[in-house]
């Protein structure tokens, strides 16, 4: 719910072999460990790479060549390797650099298989709102969508969507209806949040998330979890669900990976910079989630390791360092009611 959240080059290096299907999880790699009982939920990310190895000097020289290439030269080289050619120049440079780096490191030694999630669950809530967002207004979730992204195939494998009946402000404002496209009749017929959350948990269990497959949540910004879900759990008098306590904030990941300022990480701007247009109805939770998934797919293709970077602790939003061992979300469970 974005309205409420925020010189000529030298010759290029010799052609490398065709890239694997996914920059994050090439086919044939092992699933991440997921059970706290087996591994304490931690996956080692330690690397045995020796940065004095000549391969890193070669990568640095390649990066220098790429930095001096024009946009058309970048697009031509990407097309030669059958890589995506859309995006602004900085995105194209990052894409080509990561491709060459990965090929060189794969030639040096196999890439560690324990460094990714099997699935990413993209969530973008829609909530009750009023024009101007007065500070005293309590936002209640009215749409709960999930887009299930398979990181091995880089395809959207499934979706979930249910609307939610608000309790504190059961009558939607005209502004909210116009913004989200969710009508009063839709929410009047919907289940309350605890029942919808129970349906979410069952849907995730049926897909064996957190048991057979490792996964994590992903959002467009911090507000979905730290504000909307946190507030909704208090309103519904239930504890915050453990599976949503850590997530990937794709705005942070995008900004860090492509080296762009925070004001260039809004959903529509990220799509534009990657050479894509928004597909669907803006502020539909499901459509927003699908477009966020398209960004995640492109980032994975470009070599980004999407990993948890935010969490909730004692009701407060906190950052997660990239130095922390990789950890999948636990098997989903319905939280208990508050006393």
Automatic annotation (TrEMBL):
Family matches, as CDD domains: ERI-1_3'hExo_like
Entries under InterPro entries matching the protein: 3-5_Exoribonuclease, ERI-1_3'hExo-like, Ribonucl_H, RNaseH-like_sf, RNaseH_sf, SAP_dom, SAP_dom_sf
The entry's keywords: Cytoplasm, Exonuclease, Hydrolase, Magnesium, Metal-binding, Nuclease, Nucleus, Phosphoprotein, RNA-binding, RNA-mediated gene silencing, rRNA processing
Comp. bias regions, Low complexity: 9-27
Lineage of the organism: Eukaryota, Metazoa, Chordata, Craniata, Vertebrata
Listed Polar residues bias regions: 37-48
Source organism (scientific name): Calidris pygmaea
MF GO annotations: exoribonuclease II activity; metal ion binding; RNA binding
Localisation: Cytoplasm; Nucleus, Nucleolus
Domain SAP stretches: 66-100
Recorded GO CC terms: cytoplasm; nucleolus
Coiled coil: none
Superkingdom classification of source: Eukaryota
Pfam families per the UniProt record, alphabetical: RNase_T (PF00929), SAP (PF02037)
Enzyme Commission code: 3.1.13.1
Region entry Disordered, spans: 1-48
Cofactor annotation: Mg(2+)
Catalytic activity: Exonucleolytic cleavage in the 3'- to 5'-direction to yield nucleoside 5'-phosphates
GO BP: regulatory ncRNA-mediated gene silencing; rRNA processing
Name this polypeptide is given: 3'-5' exoribonuclease 1
């Amino acid at each position: 719910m974005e309205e409420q959240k925020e010189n000529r080059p030298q010759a290029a290096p010799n052609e490398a072999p065709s890239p694997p299907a996914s920059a994050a999880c090439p086919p044939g790699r092992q699933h991440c460990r997921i059970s706290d009982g087996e591994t304490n939920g931690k996956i080692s990310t330690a690397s045995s790479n020796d940065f004095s190895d000549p391969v890193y000097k070669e990568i640095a020289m390649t990066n220098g060549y790429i930095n001096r290439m024009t946009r058309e030269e970048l697009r031509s080289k990407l097309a030669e390797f059958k890589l995506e050619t859309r995006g602004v120049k900085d995105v194209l440079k990052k894409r080509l650099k990561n491709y060459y780096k990965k090929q060189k490191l794969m030639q040096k030694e196999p890439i560690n298989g324990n460094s990714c999630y099997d699935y990413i669950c993209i969530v973008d809530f829609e909530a009750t709102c009023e024009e101007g967002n007065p500070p005293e207004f309590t936002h209640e979730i009215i749409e709960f969508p999930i887009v299930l992204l398979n990181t091995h195939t880089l395809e959207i494998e499934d979706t979930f969507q249910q609307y939610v009946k608000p309790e504190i402000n059961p009558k939607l404002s005209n502004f909210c209806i116009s913004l989200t496209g969710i009508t009063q009749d839709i929410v009047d017929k919907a289940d309350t949040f605890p029942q919808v959350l129970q349906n979410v948990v069952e849907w995730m269990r049926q897909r064996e998330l957190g048991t057979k497959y490792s996964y994590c949540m992903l959002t467009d910004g911090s507000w979905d979890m730290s504000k909307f879900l946190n507030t909704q759990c208090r309103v519904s008098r239930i504890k915050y669900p453990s599976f949503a306590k850590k997530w990937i904030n794709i705005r942070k990941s995008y900004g860090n990976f492509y080296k762009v300022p925070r004001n260039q990480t809004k959903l529509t701007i990220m799509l534009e910079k990657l050479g894509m247009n928004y597909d669907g109805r803006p502020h539909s939770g499901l459509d927003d989630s699908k477009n966020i998934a398209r960004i995640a797919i492109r980032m994975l293709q470009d070599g980004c390791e999407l990993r948890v970077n935010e969490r909730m602790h004692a009701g407060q939003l906190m950052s997660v360092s990239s130095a922390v061992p990789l950890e999948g979300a636990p098997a989903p469970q319905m939280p208990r009611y508050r006393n």
